[in-house]
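EI: anyone free to look at a 241-residue chain?
SC: sure, send it
EI:
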Amino acid sequence: MTVGHEHQHTGEPHRGGGLANRLNWLRAGVLGANDGIVSTAGIVVGVAAATAERAPIFTAGVAGLAAGAVSMALGEYVSVSTQRDTEQTLLAKEERELLEQPEAEFDELVGLYELKGLTHETACRVARELSDRDAFEAHADAELGIDPHELTNPWQAAFSSAVSFTAGALLPLVAILTPPAAWRIPVAFMAVIIALALTGAVGATLGGSRPWRPMVRVVIGGALAMVVTFAIGRLVGQTVA
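SC: here you go
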């Protein structure tokens, strides 16, 4: 068997690492919580700027919570389903190529290990041992960065996103309904800022980056959203009145 790494397939993204797939549901949860906090805070602050009555604030907040949770779950399901379909298509293509041209696939596997820094002899030995154990799994990992036994789960991502959005949305809703009317907006504002800082830090940690810059971004974005909706709510409330 001629061993080399000239043979390369076009149209296959050779990527490494399955950590992103394994943390997909967790990141969806963090994003869902962040969206729940910001969107619901914007709604309730805007309504609170227009009226001091609890019923309209509660109604608007609950409606926004329900709509947002369904929207986030649906969006995650569609997105992750598309990703899963792509993974399955790539795996099926790889399995077919292993059956039709096993020698060329072996050459490609050796070449990929050489690109990672192994000598030609070591790459051949590693490729042979892994192929003897499970050729399909070895190629899926080295060429595609996919674990065939741990494909992304759209239902898991959708459920995580919906639950986290709901949890995040409850915070500004409770924060604005609990205190007296004069303190509603300041209390909700501070609670949202603290919560956004925490979700920004968690998201940065999951992404492997330093937390300060993401924290500042989400805090500024959330504060800006509340300021804008407060101004719009106050303006609309006065106009209607």
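EI: Residues 98 and 105 are 6 Å apart (CA to CA).
SC: 👍
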